[in-house]
Amino acid sequence: MDKRAPDNRSIGVFDSGMGGLTAVRRLHALMPKENIIYFGDTSRVPYGTRGRDTIVKYARQDVAFLRQFDLKAIVIACNTVSSVALDLLTEENNIPIIGTVEPACRRAMTMTQNGRGGVIGTAATMRAGAYEKYLLK
After folding, report:
1. What is the rounded distance in angstroms from the CA atom of residue 95 to the CA atom of residue 90?
2. Which of 34, 38, 76, 113, CA to CA, is 20 to 30 A from 20?
3. 111-133: buried (b, 16+ CB within 10 Å) or exposed (e) per residue?
4. Are 67 and 93 in contact (CB under 8 A)?
5. Contact (CB, 8 A) for 48 and 84
6. Is 0.85 topped by the overall pTM?
7. CB 32 within 8 A of CB 57
8. Each residue of 90-131: pLDDT tens digit?
9. CA-CA distance, 75 to 127, in Å (whole number)?
10. Rounded distance, CA 121 to CA 91, Å?
11. Please, what sign has the CA dihedral across residues 106, 51, 96, 19?
12. Which long-range contacts (C-beta less than 8 Å, at least 24 apart) are formed by 105-111?
């Protein structure tokens, strides 16, 4: 039996706009006792039309803002940031950073009947090739 105290720290969630509220609602439905801190960067939306360096800069700033709180994990509810900067943010932080690409791909793989699917995304998301990379694994 695990005798560790429950981790009451919050989960941070960020998005480049308001779409991340859908992720927050789903997280709350799945984990109603968790505290969630949400940051929607509506002042710089959309991220998907920006270059890689700008997206990484914004993502680092978003994570730094959320890290002001005592978090146990961060969810990137932005497909563009998940595609472009997830690996880098994971390397730079000592808490779990969870993106949208892998869960979306896993779900899509369970839904397809012919092994085919499509991705609708921003220019930056598509340039990053994260969906193709994960699906080919």
Report:
1. 8
2. 113
3. eeeeeeeebebbebbbebebbee
4. yes
5. no
6. yes
7. no
8. 999 999 999 999 999 999 889 989 988 888 889 999 999 999
9. 22
10. 25
11. negative
12. 105/131, 105/134, 105/135, 108/135, 109/135
Residue recorded with tokens 């990053």: 128
Helix 79-92, helix 101-111: angle, nearest 10: 130
Q: Find the length of the chain.
A: 137
Q: What is the bridge-based pairing of β-strands 36-40 and 97-98?
A: unpaired
The tens digit of pLDDT for each residue in 36-83 reads 999 999 999 999 999 999 999 999 999 999 999 999 999 999 999 999
Two tokens, residue 16: 């480049």
- Give the whole-angstrom CA distance, residue 21 versus residue 27: 10
